[in-house]
Amino acid sequence: MEARGRKRRVRESLLARPAAYSLLQRGLGARRAHRVLVAEYLVARPGERVLDLGCGPGDILAALPAVDYLGLDVSPEYVAAAGRRHRGRAEFRCADVAGPAGTGGPERGPAVDDRRFDGALAVGLLHHLDDVQAGRVFALAAGALTPDGRLVTLDPARLAGQHRVARWLIARDRGAGVRTPDAYRQLALAHFGSVAVSVREDLARVPYTHAILECRDPRPARGESGLERGESGRGRGESGPPAGTP
Question: What pTM does this model have?
């Protein structure tokens, strides 16, 4: 038990490093997953505004056209690395997209201002969150999107009869909130009028099960308009105090 905990701590430490995280993701086939997600589900067009919730080191930018991109992540290391890597092309801010709203402080972090976005992404985020935190992410996206905007999410999923290798890998994921595809969908329906779910088992280089949500008809709560206003740095990773998405 102690040895298992030690291994987990070592893995967490390694994956906290942006370069190590990106390398592992590429090894598992994340580039293909990103291309498919953007081309078949988000369908982003040049010039659109795209909000990336839990953006990590910004790896998905390689699959996006020339969009007006804002990435939010709780990790100052990821945000700084993304800002250096994508200097001049994208904006990154440190923010807790799953924390309580309304304070403007470290519980929620800096802002998406008054902008409205045509598309939003949450890639590999929801399975790290409990239901309350996931609901905050959906609420944030619904409040930040235009009426015709869409949110696309991708996460590992539990599925009856899934490949045993996929089941084994998913059971060892860092996220404690891996759900069935329908469980993800039910969380989204509290904030979106239309939610389609797709199950994909062809996005990784190893057997793996992903659930993709396409959320449309955003229904923001009264007064919900994304994160509070805050400081940012375009392409430099400048940020305010962080607090909590994986």
Answer: 0.80
